[in-house]
Amino acid sequence: IIQSDSVDHQGKWEEEGEGEEEEAAINTAVVRNNNINKKKNQLEEETKENVIIAEECEVVAKKRKKDHFNNNTKAQYFCQEKWIYVHKGSTRERHGYCTLGEAFNRLDFSSAIQDIRRFNYVVKLLQLIANSQLTSLSGAAQKNYFNILEKIVRKVIEDQQNPRLIKNLLQDLGSALCILVREVGKSVLVGNINIWAYRMESILNWQHQLNNLQMNREISTGVTLSDLPLHMQTSILHRFSDGLDIINLSQVTSTLHMLSEDRHLWKKLCQYHFAEKQFCRHLILTEKGHIDWKLMYFTLQKYYPKKEQYGDTLQFCRHCSILFWKDYHLALLFKDTGHPCTANNPENCSTSVSPQHFIDLFKF
Questions:
Q1: 101 and 134 share one domain
Q2: How many domains does the chain fold into?
Q3: pLDDT for 69 beyond 70
């Protein structure tokens, strides 16, 4: 009887052990299934989040393109006038006043960039506006500003002329916009922020295109610069008003490099841009005791502004308070003053307006 009881108990223990193993296996399987389900749920949630983010990015990109499209298609048709009246206050005859943005919109700057004599003038004006006056422009004037800038970049890429000027302009404009967005705040920029984001992208794209600009070298069978006599090559160097242009030209041939090291060339360049008082403050001598005019030029331009030189500029009539573009061909043929002047001697009333003077006219 005792033996049979022990056998029965042993059989029960074995059955209980097998049951516990089955329960453990079932629990393990359940845990695995739960982990798999959790991972599936996590993957599904991450996929949903990625899809939502992608859709949001796509919506933002479409909205940005739509805003830029509306910004271009709904652009205001600006008046292309050759002259405007600059009034700084209200009178019985005239009400209101002329702002910088209004003058920028009304004067024909789009056509001015097509004139090689006025191209540098317009570029310098855009650069000064980018550095200090961009926020003072109205939304329409800012729109016109970037439209003209785009035309300038296209012209430089097509003509392959003056790329350095435009690189400096884009560099200053990009830096100014970054400061306005980060330090001052977005509220100072007129218009939708997506439009400004697109404009920043355009600036980066233009800079990339200009940096990768490859100059096309045309093979000429005629007379080249190096074929000219030395006195003619020297005369050409003396026509340059920018020292960097002389440095770049000196790298073309060994002869031009020799001519570019002439002391008299750099002396005349220093005398053209700077005053004698400025020479004394930054006098630089060579080992032989002579004045190093070349080093003097690049030192002085760090401390003092260079003399600006333009082929053609805006004119301001002091008698009529009118700002105008003067067509010299019409002036020679028909004695046209460029505006309806009422003075007895209109020529003595007109004065050339530098880009900085243009901005100063509208500071109240």
A1: yes
A2: 3
A3: no
